[in-house]
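Quick start: read one record
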Amino acid sequence: MKYALPLLFCCAAAFPALAQPAPQTAKIRQEAQSGLPSYATVATAVVGAPLVIDARIGDLIRIKENAAPGLSSGRARLYVQADVLALIRGSSALPTQISYLADVPLDSRGKLPKLKRARVLLFARPVAGKASEVQLTGIDGQYLWTPELDALTRRITREVLAADAPPAITGIGNAFHVPGALPGEGESQIFLKTANGAPISLQILRRPGEKTRWAVSLGDIVDDSAGQPKRDTLAWYRLACGLPKTLPDDAVSAETPDNAEAVRQDYQVVLRDLGPCA
């Protein structure tokens, strides 16, 4: 069997007994025509995909609805064969041709979009024992390729795979507030729970007559000078898309009512400045 660059190993579902797509899998996204997907959208796709593949669709076969369990209304399930053009993420070699299932939306006339020879970015996972097949990971499992989307995908992949990459946030640990000497002055610290146990904390500083400032520390040392993460970076994504909308009561259970309320207000400042996970 011929292999492309030895950067990743790709498996999918075998036809006709292909692994079913993940729920709502494999929508061909039309941002290629309407604009670049948001950083958060692409980051979510990259984070959830052990395999990221640049490919060109070759052959495809439409599967009959009675043989496509779980197919949503207004979609068609396709068996797709594609040529691998580039390997963006993965751990071992990938065959030069792969196959997978894709549930794609039909057009307004109920017709299939023209996908043959289309260049796509695939976000996928291996299927055990099937070296030439992949299973797409979700609704963002397949995108129409554009140079801008390719560049953004590669940038995010580098961020995710970096040795010092910020981990996923799984919750809030403890939080406390220390009032200052002047009315309205004070500092809050909020410690976050992460998927790998690495420490992340937030520091929020209030001064009378000044805008509230906050910083994030990625490590054991609390660094008030670290500042806020820049938007559309992995650190921003982890916070904007991982923090709960409200501070849980148990995080401030040891605080006085006034201090607990101050921490809650400071936490909302952080969420406001981060903006929504678009």
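Residues 1-17, 24-33 have pLDDT under 50 and may be disordered.
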